[in-house]
Give the backbone structure.
Amino acid sequence: MDIREKMKRDWDRRAKVDPLYWVAATEEADEASYQESAEHDANAFLQGLGDRAAKSSRVLDLGCGIGRMTAPLAKHFAEVVGVDVSGEMIKQAEVLHSSVANLSFSANNGTDLGDYEDESFDLVLSYSVLPHLPPEVVASYFQEVNRVLKPGGWYRYQFWVGPERMMANNDTLNIRVYPPEAFNSLNRDAGFELHEIDEIDYLDPVLQLKPVWVNVKKVGAANLEVKLDGRCEADDSDDEKHLEGSLLIYLANKHLDRGELNEAEAVLEQAIHYDPDRPEGYIAWATIRVERDDIKGAFTLFEMLTTRLPDFAPGWVFRAQAEEALSRKSAALESIRKAESLADDPDLRTLTGEIRERLRGMK
Ligand SMILES: C[S@@+](CC[C@H](N)C(=O)[O-])C[C@H]1O[C@@H](n2cnc3c(N)ncnc32)[C@H](O)[C@@H]1O
């Protein structure tokens, strides 16, 4: 597969499930926190930019998503253009911000800025995009940003600098961290002079690192070696599945906390489809089905779980409970036996013992 297609496929899928969550990943995962994040991040962008770009500037937002930061910035500059690999994100951005006259959006191929003329922008921004890209795509974009910027133009972008962390070349989600030397040579070879690096006030719990905003100025032509053959694995890497699956479960739980059962079910369907080897999705969805008095629906999910993960003992206990609720005594006994054969765990035995006891009283 070509990396351009994979980036488009993955981000289109995310945009269809919940664009607000996937562009901002706020803790509350709701509309209010999305709006707050837009205001906060646009302000941080403007503050760190200072007076480097005039009000008359033409600005490009690279990887604009649904225009979360692009739209607020339109109040501060003469013209703002958003570009993104995902046609779905762009479609939604256009609907959301159709009334803003000096704002436009378009989809690109995910590696270059071929739709834009040389030296046609005063300022380029990119937030929460570059760290998701393979390094050769980042190099291609740095070269392109240099090309579309006017001499002396500014590029302000978000990045991660620290102990190196590189992912599989087709991973479109996990964060890549560049060691300082690679970061410095990337800027230098792309014809940029490094001016400021400001820490962003967010500590990533996994990386134990904070991202940064970087201000660089175009001081010459790019002299980067860009080796972009583009071929990559079509299947998602385990790291990617793991992160996407856990974020979807997080999002579904937030919907559940707010009593938004339909939304939670829709997200859980995606979670199971995307990462079928993760039990939490089936269990959370079955729990909603039980809450909705749909025991058959819950049973179907536990049947899917035990078929997909036959060695996961708790799956058989859940299945036995659903079978008990459906008065399927012999099937429930069979599921209990299966669970007990898989795990010698006292808590699990207590549960299976209680179910067996109740089944005894059943005809
Ligand atoms: C986490 S979102 C951030 C969106 C936006 N910058 C914001 O802060 O709201 C990442 C965005 O990058 C876009 N993207 C991913 N790979 C891209 C690529 N190769 N070229 C352009 N956009 C890309 C995605 O479609 C998605 O909209």
About this structure: The chain has two domains: 3-218, 238-360. The chain is about 50% helix and 15% strand. The mean pLDDT is 97.
